[in-house]
Amino acid sequence: MIEVNFDGLPGPTHNYAGLSVGNVASQSHFGEVSYPRAAALQGLAKMRTAMELGLTQGFLPPPLRPAADALRGFGFSGADDEVLAAAGEQDLALLRAACSASSMWRANAATVLAAPDTGDGRTHLVTANLAGMLHRSFEAAETFALLRRVFASEDRFAVHGPRASARHFGDEGAANHMRLAASHGAPGLNVFVHGEASRGGAFPERQSLRASQAVARLSGLAGERTFYALQNEAAVQAGAFHNDVVAVANQNVLLAHPQAFADPARLYRELRARLPNLHVVETFGVSLEDAVSSYLFNSQLVSLPGGGMALILPSDAQENAVAWAAVEAVLAGDNPIERAVVVDVRESMRNGGGPACLRLRVPVDGPGLAGIDPRFILDEARWTSLAKVVVSYWPEQIAPGDLVKPELWAQAREAHAALEAVIG
After folding, report:
1. Which of 10, 169, 191, 335 has its CA 20 to 30 A from that of 135?
2. What pLDDT score was predicted for residue 199?
3. Looking at 184, 347, 357, 416, which residue is catalytic?
């Protein structure tokens, strides 16, 4: 088995509206000018980097934005531009939510359960409801339809719709799930990381325990291979709104901040009992503030075709002296991580999403890979076609006041149509 990373392509309405409560970067860059074309090209460059490492790389296109249909559910009527104009006049915050390009962060698209672990031997994808944030909740139904389109083989994949969209069933997908195993094809340990609403901090929980338990039941996971871990409250309040801001796992390696979990000693003890060769790599000396600002742990930890592992890191981690010292210590340590690969995803980072946020990991064997719609697996020609569409149709920049302009809405629709034409 191999692991395919499906990266979200940043959409043409990428902007800084500060919509994500608890996300320090999103809040701090509110109102600044964004650069959608650069965001998409940075995302594509990261995908190319993975391809050059010998990895199989997929992509997931963005839904149409602004989401006029979503606004009709709030009582706005008429043609699309009439709906958008009325929302801009009567509820600007709602229009901003409908313009969000947050679907780029496909780690939140679904929780993926590998075929060796599930009850029926298929790969299960449970679409996230993203109930905690209004702008992201608009994505759930669209993401479900997209996943069914991409993973169309019902012999190999089971694609589940989102759970009921309620805060006590808040589900933010793979960003709060880790799989540990001797190899991608071996039976694995599934760790679901969740918050706790009763703690009542300034920043809300995003992932509920109930939602994680529902995902495990839907996929038929064995109880002895399923673990639930409570997030450390200090990490959440520091801006680690998803677990993947403070921890990342791959095969038998878990790279984590010492304050990632409420009870790390118990979690590591239970995991080692099932996976004796587990490498837990903790980065002592990196503060939560440095972890959140550098997104050191929001790196992709990938298995290289020739053996060993690589960390695909944001350039922000390299520019943070404390974080980079930790990376060098990890590379020098007794663990399978042997390479650090730096990518520039600054446009995504400024809205609160690093390399790991941008991708959905899907482990597949040969027949499973053959069951994926090939239009969403990248090769050189397909990558070049996507890059040409971005250069030709994505806006160069968007200022805060541009979200109410019909010219932007028309350009976004044209870009979406051009992208769909390239996909075919």
Report:
1. 191
2. 67
3. 357
Would you call 172 a catalytic residue per the annotation? yes
Q: How far is CA 363 from the centre of its chain?
A: 16
Q: How many domains does the chain have?
A: 1
Q: Which amino acid is located at 9 in the chain?
A: L
For residue range 349-373, list pLDDT tens digits in order: 998 899 999 999 999 999 999 999 9
Predicted pLDDT of residue 206: 83
pLDDT value at residue 32: 84
Taking the C-alpha atoms of residue 98 and residue 66, their distance in angstroms, rounded to an integer, is 5
Is omega for the bond preceding 66 within 30 degrees of 0, making it cis? Answer: yes
In a domain, 167, yes or no: yes
CATH number at 27 reads 3.75.10.20
pTM over 0.85: yes
The residue ranges of the chain whose pLDDT is under 50 are: none
Which of 172, 205, 282, 347 is flagged as catalytic? 172
Decide if 208 is inside a domain. Answer: yes
Instruction: Answer yes or no: is 304 within a domain.
Output: no
Q: Is residue 333 part of a domain?
A: no
Range of the domain at 26: 2-65+100-246+356-423
Looking at residue 26, its pLDDT comes to 64
Catalytic site residue from 177, 242, 257, 279? 242
